[in-house]
Specification:
A 5-stranded parallel beta sheet has the order 2-3-1-4-5, with helices on both faces. Helix 2 crosses helix 5. It has a single domain, classed as P-loop containing nucleotide triphosphate hydrolases (Rossmann fold, 3-Layer(aba) Sandwich). The protein has 9 helices and 5 strands, in the order βαβααααββαααβα. It has about 200 residues and is of the alpha/beta class.
Amino acid sequence: MIIIGLTGGVGCGKSTVGNKMKEIFSVKLQMTDQIGHLAMEEGTRCYAEICRIFGKDMIAENGQIRRDKLAEVVFTNPEKLEILNGLIHPWVIEYLKTDIERERKEKRFQFYVIESAILLETNLDRLCDVVWYVNTDKDIRRKRLQDSRGYSDEKIDAIMAQQKDSAWIQEHCQVEIRNNAILEETMEQVKKQLQILGNQYEMEE
């Protein structure tokens, strides 16, 4: 089983590419945002620590953490964001390690994809055999975010300013997937890269 890290900036379409990979190919897809949500469910170590550090105001009436309110707090406070990441990221890494070990034993998939906007920053690339960068021109990313999420230019600028620039990501990735055009063209690039990886895997076997 080959482990692929899938990363890219906001609006680049990495989640869309990941989901399409899952639909078309023999791929197990794990999105770290979704795993992070599991980390914050009631009964986990992270849940207890978030309640202790950030206060009971973060808990909704149904007992779940109010992720929208928590996001508002950490978005403008780098120190609190670092604290939250220090709780969530280790949990996510352990979850992935356990899941990867299980999938290796079961041998259900040829490829295992970890999708994360901060895959490199959180050292998740250490779990991967190869890291792919889904790269999209900034003006296209901006239009996607405006159309799909209703983000203002100010919000987009603020988010992009917090993320690593394209040159830094390219330097740390082995494969670049261009996602400026229609999805079908993007997936042709994906298909080609999977074939290359598959051939390399067979040779090593």
